[in-house]
Design brief:
54% helix; alpha/beta
Amino acid sequence: MIYQFKIRGVVGSWWGTTADDIEYFLSRYKDKDVDVAICSPGGSVAEGLEIYQAFKDHGKVHVHIVGLTASIATVIAMGAKTVDMVKGSLILIHNSSTPVTEWRMANKEELDKIIAKYKKERNNLNTIDDLMASIYAEKSGKTMQECLDKMKAAEWITADEAKDFGLVDSIRTDADSAKIVAMGDNYFNNIIKEYGLPALPVRSDGVDAVVDSEGNPTESFLAKTWQGLKERFRKQQAKDKVMNKKFENVAAVLGYPGIEEKDGYVSLSVEDVEKLDKHMADSEAKADEKADELGKANGKLAELKQKVQDLEETVKNLKDAPGAKADTNPGEEPVAEVVDNEAGIKLFNSVMGL
């Protein structure tokens, strides 16, 4: 199966898939059918809903669930025109959650504020759950309550169960794709735990394990993981290359060996900003100077063109003037007679008796 795009990692994170990634991808395939694979534990609800709507708006996205797909990643799949699931894969739909990070001493007034804050968070979660349930219901044909009950159960669902519930349209048998499914091993369960998802069911259906008998990652799993990371880093490096070049140019203006970027931001001092402002002002002045020089050069070129035209006109007029053309067939040149003056004098004297 050839996929035009793969949604991997945490949705909305730099090492996963973002809404911007999807927007750029779909812009290249307007009005075309596209196949998208999903193998993600979920992530940002906001980013996921944006991707879900992008799939619906495009109208020709075909999603293929491969491996383990959970949380908001399953909602994304619901926006596709068709959804299939590789035999041996698992999906998980569940209630939304939010971080709880209170670890402090508090008096009663402070406790009231904390309780009020989390009551608001709970109401927000309830709204999000209803929204996701409505999306599942639209796809499956089930009622909102049936979908909410399924979410509350928070159990991993097989391909057959997902099809029976109406979350996927068909099941695909793909031995190669099924091999990336990891079930019943501590290694992957530890990763899942980080996202607050329930542990995978212990099953044995022929898929390759990702850990050996001692609990260490297998070579095949490490190879797949490394390949996934390389693909993700390759995308990120392509994005960073352009930005790094910009940093280099700015660093050259400021006289720095380099500029450090942190969390998508760079820090500049007031002096740095003044240097950049002066550089831009100097650049504008040089641009104006070059534009002035270009204008003068164009003026001189126009003068030379006019002189050439005047000379061409003068030559034309000279050629057309009367007598300008030479007589190419002159008559015979008169022959000059050679006269012997001394003989003539002698003749004249003899006639005259001199």
